[in-house]
Amino acid sequence: MDRPSPFTAVSSPAQRRGLFPENEPFAHGWLATESEHEVYYEECGAPDGKPCLILHGGPGGAINPTMRRFFDPSKWRMALFDQRGCGRSHPNARLEHNTTWTLIADIERLRVKLGVEKWTVFGGSWGSTLALAYAITHPDRVEGLVLRGVFLLTEKELRWFYQDGASMLFPDAWAHFLAPIPEEERHDLMGAYHRRLTHSDRRVQAEAATAWSQWEGDTISIRGPEARPSKFNEVDFAIAFARIECHYFVNRGFFPEDGWILKNIDKIRDIPGWIVQGRFDVVTPMDAAWRLSQAWPEARLDVVWDAGHASTEPGVVDALVRATDQALAG
User: Fold this and answer.
1) Quick check: 237 and 243 in contact, CB under 8 A?
2) Which residues are catalytic?
3) Residue 32 to residue 35: CA distance in whole angstroms
4) What is the structure's pLDDT at 227?
5) Within 13 Å and on the Cβ side, how many CA atoms surround 242?
6) Which residue ranges make up each domain of the chain?
7) 202-219 vs 189-197: helix axis angle to the nearest 10?
8) How far is 95 from 17, CA to CA, in rounded Å?
9) pTM for the structure as a whole
10) Residue 4: pLDDT band by 50, 70, 90 thresholds?
11) For labelling, which of 69, 76, 80, 302 has a CA lying 20 to 30 Å from the CA of 53?
12) How many CB atoms lie within 10 A of CB 168?
């Protein structure tokens, strides 16, 4: 891989590329695990193409058709899966046996089932966290990493978004986030939300899940609330999303120590990497991408100056499509 300066600007708006054409899966199914979880997966693109794995965000999100469109479907063999408790995987919203390490085990099960020796791994937001953790754990199975909206899942990042930080930029949206939580519990908002999202009464879960999901939806894009994913307005999706996300966050990603990813970054220094980061990303601020690029200078960092967190913002689309084309070339 030809590695330019670790900090580069992306194309001007007039030069930007768009998504590849829509494409449908050529195979799908459910993957059995060691527990009650069954994981939905699908394959898209070219059956004999270069293998890649596409990881969704959250934790608690789900795959969607747009995720397939960052890769040339005539040249890539794309694998996607709904992580435990998410999307079409079942049981829905289940927290038991649902950790970073069980997801990494699922990725390995899927790789073996599909007969893949090594693959390029693509992930944004929490997907970048999982991609990095997987690569650190199984570096010999990763040919390249394409990451967006880097999230290292550190205490600093969690406090920024769920306790004190982003609230100063979006005080109006923050007021809605605070509304379900009494004043006396607001010193630990993730803990307060976790109690409600694991409550036995589904109505309590739904109220908390709606507020939790709306907070992320209101801050995801510089285009404003109209860019909020429509699924955030669906109660079933919001409950699964918020329950699983909060479960992971109160457990600090199940990592053995804070900052675990950067402390283990030397294990992936030889893996080609592309990092795409919105300059005005409020959900996962640029500090994490910058620290990752400093610890991993071999990776390319593209900063999109007119973008926030959303993967569908034009500059982010352009940078990711260019990155997957470069990863294809090797």
Assistant:
1) no
2) 125, 281, 309
3) 8
4) 65
5) 36
6) 7-154+255-329, 155-253
7) 140
8) 39
9) 0.96
10) very low
11) 302
12) 8
Q: In what order do the strands lie in the sheet with 119-124?
A: 7-9, 300-304, 273-278, 142-148, 119-124, 50-55, 76-81, 38-45, 25-32
Q: What are the residues whose beta carbons fall under 8 Å from the beta carbon of 171, sequence distance 6 or more?
A: none
Question: Mind listing the pLDDT tens digit for each residue in 240-263?
Answer: 999 999 999 999 999 999 999 999
- Compute, in degrees rounded to 10, the torsion defined by CA atoms 120, 256, 155, 60: 50
Q: What percent of the chain has pLDDT over 70?
A: 95
Rounded (10°) CA dihedral 269, 271, 274, 279: -30
* Residue 2 confidence (pLDDT): 47
CA 48 vs. chain centroid, Å, equals: 26
Bridge partners (DSSP) listed for residue 39: 31
Query: From the centroid of its chain, how far is CA 20?
Result: 20
Class of domain 7-154+255-329: alpha beta
The arithmetic mean of pLDDT across residues 50-54, rounded, is: 98
Phi, then psi, of 93 in degrees rounded to 5: 65, 15
Residues written for the chain? 330
* Single-letter code of the amino acid located at 267: K
pLDDT on residue 234: 86
Pairing relationship of beta strands 142-148 and 119-124 according to DSSP bridges: parallel
